[in-house]
Amino acid sequence: MIHRTCLPVLILLSLLQTTVNAQPDSVWARIFDVGGWDECSDVIPLSDGGFALVGHTLGEEALQEQIYVMTTDSGGNPNQAMSYGGGFMDMGSTLLQQNDGSLLVAGWSHISNETEQNIRLIGVGLDLQAGWAQSFGGSSQERCYSMLQNHDGNIIMAGYTSSFGAGLSDFWLLCANTFGDSLWSRTYGDSELQECYSISETSDGGYLLAGYTGSNSNDDDDFLAVRVDNLGNIIWQRTFGGDEQDKCFDCLETSDGGFLLAGRTSSFGAGGKDAWIVRANSAGDSLWSRTFGGTFDDSFQSICLRPDGGFILGGWTDSFAEHNADMWLVRIDANGDLLWDRTYGGRSSASWDECTAVKETPDGGFILAGSTGYAPGEWQDSDFLLIKIGADPMDVEHSPPFLPDGFELQAFPNPFNSVSTIRLTVPFSQNIRLSVYNIQGRMIQEIVRGPMNLGTHYLTFVGEAFPSGTYFMNLQGEYYGATQKLILLK
Predict the structure, then answer these.
(1) What's the pTM value of the predicted model, to 2 decimals?
(2) What are phi and psi of 117, to 5 degrees?
(3) Residue 18 Cα to chain centre, angstroms
(4) Which of 199, 280, 195 is nearest to 246 (CA)?
C-alpha cells in the first residue's frame, strides 16, 4: 500500500540554521547534540562542498523518535537541520542528492502502532522543507536501509518486507520515480528470515543486493548476495558463512566486475565477532575472504573503492579501542591484505564511538559519520559524530584528530536578536555546567548540566522570553571555568 501525504515537520535546533564562516580544515571532527538520544546512519558529500547527514533523534521529553537531517559546510559547521515524523517512531537510514540539489531521504515509520512499519521516502528541498512523502508497505514490517539513483534517474530502494514474499521477512527491492511513485518491486527469499542492508548498481545496469539469511530458531545466519538485472529478475544468489552468526552490511562492484561484501562474522576469526570481507567474482563464486579483529567484537559497516583497486572499510572495534568501541578505518589492497588501520574515539572509559558510513570526498580524503555515546552509570547519551580526514590518515599524528587541546567557548551571532549558537569544545569527557545569568547575577537558564563527551558541541540559547540587555554565559568544567558576555537586542 502506498500513501502520499504532506509531512509534518519540526525544526529541532534553530542553532543549526546559522552558518559559521570559518576556513575549512582538511582534518576535523564535529559532535552534534541534537537534543536527546541521537544516532547518525549515513552521510553524503554535497555539490556545494558540504555534507548532509541523516539519522534519528529521540527527544528527552517527547518519547517519539523522528527522522533527522542536517547539512554542514565544508568545514563541518552546521547550516540547516530538520526533523520529520509525527508518528510513534520514524527512523532515517539513507539519503542522496539529486541533480537539482534537492535531497531524497529514506527510512521507515511506524504507521499506526508499534508493529506496523512502512518504508518512508521523503522529497526534501534545498531548505530541507519536505515537499512530499510516500509510504510503501503492508500490514506488517518493512524497512529501507539503502538507496541509489540509477542511470535512468529512477530511485532504487532496498530493505526487507514482512508483509509480502515467501517467508518471515524477505529482501525487498523497489523502484520509484523521482516523485516517489512506485514503478515496480520484487521480493527475494525463502520461508525463513532474509534482511537486505545494501544495494549497489552494477556496470551492466543491474544491481547487487546484500544482507543476511537466517532462521528464527537459531543464530546460524549467513551473508546473502543476490544479483539481479535492471528489472529485478534474479541472475544468481549466493550465501557465505559458517555455523554461527554472519551478517553483511555493505557491498560494491570491484574494478574487475567482481564484488566485495563486508560485515561481521561469529563463525571465523579471533574474537566473539570479527569484521569479515568476502571477495567474489562476477558469477558470485568466492575468491577469498579475510577476517579483521581481536579478542572482542569488531565489525565493518561501509566500503569505499579506491582508484588502485583496493578498499577503505569503515566500522567499529572493541578489540583495538582504548576503552569501549571506537570508530575504525581500515585500508586494504586489492588482495585483501592490510595496509593500515586507524581508530578514532574518546578517552573516557564510559564513552563509545561507531562509524556507520564512510565516503570519499572531492579532495581525496574521507568523511566518516556515525554516533558517539557516553554512559556513566544509569545516565546515557548519544550524538551525531562527523569526522573529516585527509587522503593518507597515517600522515596525521596517531591521536584521534578530534581530541581538542583545550576548552573553547564561543557564541554567535553576538549581539543577537533571539537565538545565539554556542560552540563549546571539550578536551576530554567530563561533567560540564553551562548557564546564563542576567546582569543582577540571577541564573535565568541552565543550558547543560551533566557528563559531556570530548569534542566540539553546538548548543543554543533562546532569548525570546527575556528582555534586551546584557547577559553572561558561565562555563564550569572539572578543571576549567570561563565567562562570556552576551548582548540581546530586540
Answers:
(1) 0.80
(2) -125, 130
(3) 22
(4) 195
Please give the chain's pLDDT, 490 residues, in tens. Answer: 333 333 333 222 322 222 222 223 457 778 887 767 889 999 999 999 999 999 998 865 556 789 999 999 998 888 899 999 866 789 999 999 998 999 999 999 986 656 789 999 999 998 999 999 999 999 999 999 999 999 999 999 999 999 999 989 999 999 999 999 999 999 999 999 999 999 999 999 999 999 999 987 777 899 999 999 999 999 999 999 999 999 999 999 999 999 999 999 999 998 789 999 999 999 999 999 999 999 999 999 999 999 999 999 999 999 998 778 999 999 999 999 999 998 887 656 667 889 999 999 998 889 999 998 866 554 467 889 899 988 776 654 433 444 455 678 889 899 999 899 998 988 767 889 999 999 888 999 999 998 887 778 889 999 989 999 999 999 988 767 778 889 999 8
Query: What residue has cell string 595496509?
Result: 339
In the beta sheet, which residues pair with residue 2?
Answer: 136
DSSP state of 89: B
Residues in Cβ contact with 301 at an 8 Å cutoff, skipping those fewer than 6 apart? 249, 250, 262, 263, 314, 315, 316, 354, 355, 356, 357
Burial 134-159 (b: 16+ CB within 10 A, else e): bbbbeeebbbbbbbbbeeeeebbbbb
The amino acid present at 366, given as its one-letter code, is F
